[in-house]
Amino acid sequence: MSVCPNCGAFSNGGKFCESCGTPLPAEQNVQPAQQYQPQPQPVQPVQPIPVQPVYPQPVQPAYQQPGYQQPYMQPGQVYQPQPAYTPVKKQSTNGACIAGFILGLVGLFTLGIPSLIGVIVSTIGVIVAFAKKQKGKVLGIIGFVLSLLMVVGWILLIENSDKIGEALNSSGEGTSFEEWLFDDSYEDKIAIISETEWVEKYNGSRIVFEADNSFTYYDDYRDLNNNYYSGTYEVYIGFEGINIIDERYSYFGYTSDDICDKIDNERGVDGVKDFVTLIFHNDGYWVDGNNAHDLKWDTVYIGYFDKNNLIMDLTYLEDGKAYTFVSWDNFDESSIVMPETTPSETEHSEYYWGSVLVGGVELYQGEWSGCDEKDEMGYYYLEKIQAYNEETETRIQLSVVSGQYYEPSVAEEMAESFKETMEEYDYDVSEVEETTLGGYTAYVVTAQYDDGQYLTAWYFVDKDLRVHYITVLYYDSDLASYEMVRDSYTYEH
Question: Cα(316)–Cα(292) distance, rounded to whole angstroms?
């Protein structure tokens, strides 16, 4: 049996390996290999290696800051170093919150005078304190609540002033809410009006009030036996006078808002305390001892009462005409004038157009007729007259604003206000200029409308301290009418 030198396979004969084909050497007698038998070796005893005992080393304690305690370590626990101590920044207190709290407290002891500011400051303070994480939020909230309560209280007081006034003055005596608000005695003013005999400064009519709330209104102060009205009367001052118009006489077209706007424009907020409503409950008009109007009706006047000078400037609600009543003791007969709406041929030329109260102009060019158009300026007039030229569409207005005792400077202020109003509507407006009209220092301003029309307005204060408002509405084609007014206007009263 041969053994292949290449793959080690046994072959039963042949020259080549039956497995890989490698040439085989000549066949030799091969002895089977003897199996290896391990011989036992003597075992040497293992000498133990001496182990040195491990003794725990004492742990040196780290230096500790005062108040700091090293945590106890369990056996086998790995020590984790603690982070270094970082001081916490102290929170600041919001100043607006403190200020709001103070304003809230002050408002409690001053009837809420700073409370509206307190609401605003506290609100800002609380919002900022939350955003910046500041202290003082509680103070700000308390200040807000205190201030808000006072503001709400004032709103409720004003809205319920009538009921409060009735409660305070239920017996007809005492102090009403408005009296307390303005520190002015309304009852004192009503008593003065009722105890005074009044004469209209310009037409001479006379009012006599009696103790039983009856009145007699004479057409002529010189004749106390004929041509007079009779009945009873009521007087209201301040907000009571405003509210009574809303409650009873809204059919005249006046609302409390309208009246408040009128007061604010003419006298400012304090004008409320001088506002008066005078109501006549008429039961007849007597002529030659007979009642010519056998019926009952009301006539209502609103205006202002000057307690110091004993003057009532009143507007008759039915037609809007203005009247000035002075006390009988202060009446000067020379002041009486009868307003004219047509020219006087004996005193003026045939072209004169005007009246004693508003003055006049010479309309010597064009065809003119009277008219009555609303001027949209919102003034209350003692008298107003207008002329219209149909051919040129030019309109002229001569008027006197209701009320008196204006300072001369008010004419310039009204001219500036006119200019601002026109500018608000985006009209082209000139600057206010000082000039002369009818012998008086006047202030003139001109506005041009979108359709090309011009409106020129003059304002001046006469010797009786009344404001005159003179206007011309015209196109470029009728510049002559503007010049007629500018050059011919006269005021003789």
Answer: 21
- Residue showing tokens 């008086």: 440
- Candidates 307, 467, 337, 477; CA nearest to 403 is 467
Q: What is the 3-state secondary structure (H, E, C) of 375-415?
A: CCCCCCEEEEEEEEECCCCEEEEEEEECCCCCCCCHHHHHH
Task: Look at residue 36 and tell me if it is in a domain.
Answer: no
Q: Do residues 390 and 367 touch, judged by C-beta distance below 8 A?
A: yes
* Contact (Cβ atoms closer than 8 angstroms) between residue 331 and residue 199: yes
The alpha carbon of 114 is separated from its chain's Cα centroid by a whole number of angstroms, namely: 17
Q: What whole-number distance in Å separates Cα of residue 291 and Cα of residue 475?
A: 53
Count of domains forming the chain: 4
Distance (Å, rounded) from C-alpha 475 to C-alpha 486?
16
Judgement on whether residues 413 and 448 belong to the same structural domain of the protein = yes
pTM as predicted? 0.42
Give the Cα-Cα-Cα angle 200, 464, 306 (nearest 5 degrees). 55
pLDDT digits (tens, 9 = 90+) for 125-173: 889 888 888 888 888 899 899 888 888 888 887 777 666 655 554 444 4
Give the span between the Cα atoms of 70 and 87, in whole angstroms.
Answer: 20
Cα-Cα-Cα-Cα dihedral sign, residues 413, 417, 418, 420: positive
Domain ranges, residue 131: 95-159
Digit-coded pLDDT (tens) for 241-288: 999 998 999 888 888 888 888 888 888 777 888 999 999 999 998 988
Residues 419 and 455: their CA atoms lie apart, in Å, by: 11
Distances (CA, A) of 215 to 203, 240, 369, 374: 19, 21, 41, 34
Residues 326 and 182 placed together within one structural domain of the fold:
yes
The pairing of strands 10-11 and 290-291 is unpaired
Phi/psi zone of residue 393: left (φ > 0), alpha (ψ -120 to 50 degrees), beta? left
Q: What is the DSSP letter of 23?
A: B
Claim to verify: residue 129 and residue 225 sit in the same structural domain: no
What gap in Å lies between CA 134 and CA 96, rounded to an integer?
11
Measured between alpha carbons, how far is 491 from 468 in angstroms, rounded to an integer? Answer: 10
Look up residue 438 and give its DSSP letter: T
